[in-house]
Each structure stands twice: as structure tokens, then as C-alpha cells.
Amino acid sequence: MRFIIVVILGFLGFVSANAEHIRGMVLDEAGNPLSYATIRLENQRIATLSDSLGNFGLQIYGVNDSLIISYIGYKTRKFAIESLSDKSVVRFSLEPNVTNLPEVVVYPQSKIKYKNRKKGKKHGWAFLKSCLNGETAGDCFGYEFHSKKNRKLLLDKVGFFYCEGDSQMTKMKFRINIYDMSSVKKSPSSEFINILSKPIYFEYVLNNQLSGKFEYILPDKIELPENAMVEIEFLENLKNEIFWFKSNLIGKRTWSKSIIDGEWEKNPFATPFFIECIELKD
């Protein structure tokens, strides 16, 4: 047994000794930083987000791999690691995506009459207390929405019900993604189409209440595709804090995605967020 342990430790030491650290910055074509871009290794289960200034750091093992960098409204690019001469501070530039996206219809608040309101995923009454901690940046949770005939769904608000707990999360930045999932059959990962041309951000800051409801109301309502998935993405890690929230045990039309593999999966359980839409008749 001792011999096996020595071999394993020796192997881990070899891997660690051969690890390299890449530090970089993701920029647009004019040299402006792109906040919260996704950086993923093509052949390893390693990924990260750039910070609010476009900076990122990534540990890699071996140079026979490529960085895949993506950002809403820009072309996804691949960079071979072995082609990077200096890995201390690398500047990665992305180009705007000129592909025609589905037209995003926006409804100003003043033009909406609340005759018929559809409640989305909501669980303020739930008795189940759950938590998330650790590396959360880039992890996503979402819900399906399907419009009825001659009806439109407008994304109105998103949020969560937080509750008292040790080291409760004091602040967090989030991003809203909206996907057209009309083409999804079996594997959705390559068939979700993000309809947004630029990100939608919101920020949570804990107030003096230890338990309560947090919600972000969109100033202008966005019309969802007939078959849509609305996704909430963490943009930062929790470090030493914990996100305590209320949830249901069973979820319906619920999705999640880890930044590590970048693929969406259906969840059998409820996720932290609620999403509400306004239903309009044509």
C-alpha cells in the first residue's frame, strides 16, 4: 500500500511541475475589455470567466490544447496554446458577430397593460433550505417557457428568495441569457440560440434583512421566442461566502449548465431562481 501511495504522489508532483499558468485579457476590436467572457480549454475540463476588466488566469497542463473564448455578440475564437510566445499577459481580441440574429422585440414599461399576468417559476412558499458555495462563476440555471397560441410572453423579472444562514452571500453579479430552443431535439448544447446581441446584467447586494425576496425588474420587457429558455448566470465566485436560498424539491422544465463542460442538462430538482413573465394576447 505504501508503494502505491508513493507512486500516486510522485505522479501528482509530476503533473503539478508541468502545469503552466496563462494570464490574459479579453478585448474587443477597439481594445476595450470584455467583461465576463467565457474562456475554456478545448480538450480539458478547465474553464473560467474574465473579470469586470476582461482579465483572467487559467492553469493548464500541457501545450497540446487550445483556448476557446466566447462572448455574447462576438465571434467565438480558438487560440492554440503552443502558438502563444508569452503566457504572462496575453491579449485576446474578439470580432463582432455579423450573423443576423432573430429580432429582439422590446416593450417599454409605459406601453404594457397588466391585463393578464403569467407567473413563472416561483417558490417563495418553499420550506426547503438549500445553499451553494465555492466556485460558482459561469454556472447557470434556467427555465423553459412556451407561448400559447396567439399569446406573447414578455420577460418581466428575475430573482430569488434568500434566507438566514452562516456567511450568507452579501453581493453577487449575474447575467441574463435568453435562448431560442425551437430546434432542440435531444442534445441542446449545440442547438440553443442566444437571441441577445449584448449582455443583460444585474447585481444583488444584501440589505439589512436576513431573509427575504430579491428581484430584478427589467426596465424594458423583452419578448421571448415561442419556445424559450431564460437563464441566470453567476459571474463571480462565492469565495468564503455561502448562498442560502429557498427552493422546491421537484423542478419542472428546469435546466442547469456548468462552466466546466458548457452543456445544458435538465434538472429533476428546482433551482435557486424564479422568473416571471407577462402574458399578452395578440
Task: List strands and helices in order, with pairings.
Elements: H1 2-17, E1 19-27, E2 38-41, E3 47-49, E4 55-61, E5 66-70, E6 77-80, E7 90-93, E8 106-108, E9 117-121, E10 128-133, E11 140-146, E12 151-162, E13 171-180, E14 193-194, E15 200-205, E16 212-223, E17 227-234, E18 242-247, E19 254-257, E20 264-267, E21 273-281
The profile of the biggest β sheet is: 7 strands, antiparallel
Terminal residue distance:
72 Å
Tell how many strands the DSSP assignment holds. 21
- Taken in chain order, the helices and strands follow as HEEEEEEEEEEEEEEEEEEEEE
- Based on CA atoms alone, the radius of gyration comes out at 21 Å
Can you walk me through this structure?
- This protein is mainly beta and 282 residues long.
- The protein contains one helix and 21 strands.
- Strands 11, 13, 14, 15, 17, 19 and 20 form a seven-stranded antiparallel sheet that branches. A five-stranded antiparallel sheet has the order 8-16-12-21-9, with no helix packed on it. Strands 3-2-5-6 form a four-stranded antiparallel sheet, with no helix packed on it.
- The model is unreliable at 1-17 (pLDDT under 50).
Which characteristics define this entry?
disordered N terminus, mainly beta, 46% strand, 282 residues, 1 helix, five-stranded antiparallel beta sheet, seven-stranded antiparallel beta sheet
